[in-house]
Amino acid sequence: MRPAPQVGGGYAGGMAVTPPGWPVPPSVPAVPPPDAPLRMPPRRLGWRRILVLTGVVLLIAACAVYMLYTLGANLGLDALLVGVAAAILPVPVLVACFLWLDRYEPEPLKYLVFCFAWGAFVSTAASLTVNNAGARLFERWELPSALTAVLVAPFIEELTKALGPILLLVFRRREWSGITDGLVYCGLSAVGFAMVENILYLGGLGYASGVDEWGPATGVRNVIVIFITRILFFGFAHPLFTSMTGVGLGIAARTADRRVRVLAPAAGLLLAMILHGTWNLLPSLVQATGQAAIFFFGIVALMVPIFFGMVGFAVWLRAWEGRLTERVLPDYVRAGWLTPPEVAALGSLGRRHAARVWARRVAGEPGLRAMRGYQFAATRLALLRDGMRRGLDRKVTDRERTAREERQLLEAISAYRSFFVGRDPQAPVGIWDGQRYHLRFPDGSQRPVEAPDSPVVPIPVVLAPPAPAYPAGHGPPGWYGPGPVAPWRSGRP
Q1: Which of 409, 347, 13, 371 is nearest to 174 (CA)?
Q2: pLDDT in tens, 412-446
Q3: How far is it, in rounded angstroms, from Cα 295 to Cα 233?
Q4: Which of 484, 483, 473, 476 is nearest to 31 (CA)?
Q5: Which of 1, 79, 230, 243 is 20 to 30 Å from 414 by CA-CA measure?
Q6: What one-character DSSP code corresponds to residue 393?
Q7: How does DSSP classify residue 230?
Q8: pTM for the full model?
Q9: Between β-strands 436-440 and 429-432, what pairing exists: parallel, antiparallel or unpaired?
Q10: CA-CA distances (angstroms) from residue 26 to 272, 409, 416, 439, 461?
């Protein structure tokens, strides 16, 4: 058999070309526990990054204390508690929607919490300060204070909600897999912002004003009315606005063009501000003209179509990005690291679930955990390879880190596969050489078999030959050199 050719050119063409299935010598502890976390090559934390991280944490904590003090002083303890209890109710549902959107390659929990906390505390504190200053300025100029909601709030709120995800993009670009991640990060920031803003509306305009006028019963009634109209009917507003910025940031994260990296987020942010300002303008027009139909037509003709359009786009995008493995991982199939059924089994959530069910059946709970780790590592590998194709790493150090990460992901994939290799008695014994299968049949004969046009799923395992060729299965020294000659007859003339 001839060595599998390298795919692509430049640094994207550098790829391990040795089949991963070689048995590992007992002295090499290459197989981690199936539930062990997958650790990528660490990124060195210089003093600048440590300083930025410390400053961000202190900023979020300070803004949280400020918002708690401000809301408590303005609303009172009872109204604050009522507002918090009511405003938290929709949060799990909205967060679950964004987590569902991100199931193929879930983002680290710490970054999700960061975006939510940024929107909840930093963005609200900055927006409250600027909006109050704008209202006082308009009052001094003898202009309607309602102009604050149209001319000030959309700009400061959308800008501050986006700053948290922007920081992630600048300092943790590798955690961005595309537009889906932009929607998730910006959406969670908007959910955090909306939660704290709803505390102000539910606790202040709802409960506190009702208690001052007629008593606690009226306050509770006001809370229910505001909850239904503001949260149940229009709770999508803030996530919808900020999702426009998320689209721009997601595009910027996966392009090597510096102009697009600047223009795409700027265009998304501008669109978010325009939508937000239009939304805030509707009630002002109703109040100025006395025509309630303006608000109705604005909702039906503008906001609802945009909302359902964005939902449809997000669902389509989720499926499209989920099929990234099918578009990218065939490089590793041709190189002998993966088999066609493995790539096919990663193409949809249904296939991934079927693969986990199979792994649990043949290898128990360790096999299930190993399959989950395998699927996560394979998705990360596809994202990494796609980034190499796009030329995202311009610096030599970034390219070297990408190469190390690719190798570690391939090692992890090989280790995870070992938990369910050979466990299924219905699977034929053989190996994939990058172009065809070499199978051993029950009568003892061995012969090459071409891969079918539609790979069988979800079985993602082909066994290795009985004897190792090189230690740890990585071929001769020189990771990107030509692979070893296969220890079997290829059946070619």
Answers
A1: 409
A2: 888 888 787 767 666 666 676 667 777 777 677 77
A3: 13
A4: 473
A5: 1
A6: -
A7: I
A8: 0.81
A9: antiparallel
A10: 57, 21, 16, 26, 21
